[in-house]
Structure formats: C-alpha cells, structure tokens
Amino acid sequence: MGVALLGGAAALCAGAQDIYLADSVRLLGLQQVAQKGDGPDVERFAAKGLPDLFAEKNREYVYVGGAKVFLDDNIDTKKGKLTVTRLDYDKVLVPLFWRLPPQLPGSKRIVIDPGHGGKDPGKLNTSLGYEEKAATLDTAVRLKLVLEKRGFEVILTREKDVFVELADRAAAANKLKADLFVSLHYNGGAAGDATSAGLETYCLTPPGQYSTNKASGKADITAEAGNRFDTFNLLLAWNVHRSVLKATGGEDRGIRRARFAVLRPLNCPGILVEGGFISSRTEGAQIANAAYRQKLAEAIGEGVVAYVVRVRSKQ
Ligand SMILES: [Zn+2]
Q1: pLDDT, tens only, 198-229
Q2: Which helix (H) or strand (E) holds 14?
Q3: For residues 304 and 285, what is the distance between their CA atoms, to the nearest angstrom?
Q4: Which of 49, 119, 232, 302 satisfies CB 3.0 to 4.6 Å to 269 for a cystine?
Q5: Helix (H) or strand (E) holding 253
Q6: Residue 222 per-residue DSSP state
Q7: If residue 248 lies in a helix (H) or strand (E), which one and from where to where?
Q8: Beta 270-277 vs 180-187: how paired, if at all?
Q9: Residue 239 and residue 300: Cα distance in Å, rounded?
Q10: What is the model's pLDDT at position 219?
C-alpha cells in the first residue's frame, strides 16, 4: 500500500479494501500458472480466450496481454499472496477480463431452504410457543406452490421437521444444479425483546467489503464461490426485498450483507430472507397467522419473478 503518509485512519480504510488477486481473478475465469524462474513475489494467470495477467509485489501496475496497465494502488501481499485493492479489481481487472459467463444464471430450478429444523428450533415467540422452524417450513411449502404456478421447478432442502446441517443446504442446491437459492428465516431479538420488528434480506458480502452486522474487525478479503454471482445476488435481493416490503408493510431493515454458510458455497445466485421478527409481540403474532405467511410467500414469489424477467431480458 502506498498510503502510509495518509495517516492511520486512511491507511486502515484503504487496507480493508484489499482482496486476494488469485481469488478475485478466479471469479473472472483465470487460472494461476507457474513459470520457471518466477520468485515468490510474482503471480501469473491465464485462461483460454483471455489475455495473460502478470503481477508482481510492490509494482504500481500489472501486465495484461503483455501491456503495462497502471493501478490505483501498488500490488501488496498478505499471508504470502498478492493482493489488489477492491477498486483496482472493479475498475481495471473486471473491464479487461470480463466476458459473459458460459451461461448466464438460469432461472428454471429454484431451491428453497426452510431455515432450522429438528433439534434446531431457531427463534421463538415465547408467549405463543411458536418456533421459527415451523414458520419457515410452512412458508417454504407455500412459496413452492406460488412458484410452481409460475412455471418454476421447485425443490426444498427439507420437507419435514428434520435437522439439516448448514453446509448440506448449499451443497444440496449445488448438487441439484439449482438456478436460484432462497433461504427462509424469521428473526428474533435479544432475550426479553418483544418489540424489534421488520424485514431484512441478506446476500453474500463481496470480497473486501464489510458485512452489515459486523461492528468491528476486518473485511474478509477471500472470494467465495457465491461471489461469482455478486451482481445477481444483489439484484435478486433487491427485487424480493421491495416486493416483501410492499406486500407486508413491515419496517424496512434493509438489504444486508453477510457471509452466511448457506450462501458462501453456492453455484447460483442466492439470498436469505428474514421475513419479520417472530419474537415480536405484534409481528410474531402475524407470523403465527397463516394469512401472513401466505402473503409473504406470494410477495417473495413476485420478487423472484421480477428478478427473472430482468435477467432474461439481458439474455
Ligand atoms: Zn433463522
């Protein structure tokens, strides 16, 4: 980083924007290649149909197809691997290496993931004795019917009250070659909090970016499989969130970023919907009512359809 003179705060801020070069260009289809004589400070990448990329520690430029291209900031290293700034990834590497993915994300087969289940009840409305795992499964079944009526093929990660590991949920979607993944949850406040309410929609945090609920700490600079769909993740989240807000009139707690285990390994766009606070006296009572869950399922379905219309228009 060439920012030491800018002072601690600026340096911290800039440093937090770094991402691993190898991880990030892998999202663009480039593979790291070794060449005899290269030192530890050098990384090379190549892919069929794309120019080669050559990067070296402390340089303020990279070579793309043999041409020198200056960066916003020097190449740095972390844990022995080269890093670039998020800005240089977005403004230099993506434009030069971008190509349409082999297939744009499809939109036929949707995997719905009812949160929790079995020994894991999730959040709870104590006065009603109503558990999140029951609400998510019921909502998922309703959403399945809504989407099937719109011509989608829909599969649930669980169809009854059973425990499913987080890692197995995303793995199931990948194995099924899902085109879209929607995880359903209901929120809960801290113990004794019966007033927090509202809707949140999560998508995977892009590499180098802070997750929304993280009060402190560092941005994770690793690029996950799910980050290949950053554009589509956000587009899906936005369409669903808007639709759900409009239908329920719930408080807008925002489209948020998190590195959830159910989103990180996905081979398709995915989101996690928090459809209200089950712990809330008023919202929790609504969630316990089948009419609300039906309304929510229809709204999520409308949001998915709006997303699909948008993506198909790009094809
Ligand atoms: Zn949950």
Answers
A1: 999 999 998 888 888 876 566 788 889 999 89
A2: helix 8-16
A3: 26
A4: 232
A5: strand 252-258
A6: P
A7: helix 230-248
A8: parallel
A9: 9
A10: 73
Cα 307 from Cα 300, distance rounded (Å): 11
Q: Is 149 exposed, middle or buried (0-12, 13-18, 19+ CB in 10 A)?
A: exposed
Q: How far apart are CA 278 and CA 273, in angstroms?
A: 13
Q: Which CATH number fits domain 4-97: 3.40.630.30, 3.40.50.2000, 3.40.50.300, 3.30.457.10?
A: 3.30.457.10
Give the distance (Å) from ligand 1 centre to CA of residue 120.
9
Six token digits for residue 220: 């994770």
User: Backbone phi, then psi, for 120, in 5-degree steps?
Assistant: -110, 100
β-pairing, 199-204 with 252-258? Answer: parallel
Q: How far does residue 186's CA lie from ligand 1's centre (Å)?
A: 5
Q: Convert the pLDDT of each residue in 244-301 to its tens digit.
A: 999 999 999 999 999 999 999 999 999 999 999 999 999 999 999 999 999 999 999 9
User: Are the C-beta atoms of residues 162 and 117 closer than 8 Å to each other?
Assistant: yes
CA atoms within 13 A of residue 149's CA, in its CB half-sphere: 10
Question: Which amino acid appears at position 214 of this protein?
Answer: K
| Residue 132 CA, ligand 1 centroid: distance in Å | 7
The CATH superfamily of 109-314 is Zn-dependent exopeptidases (3.40.630.40)
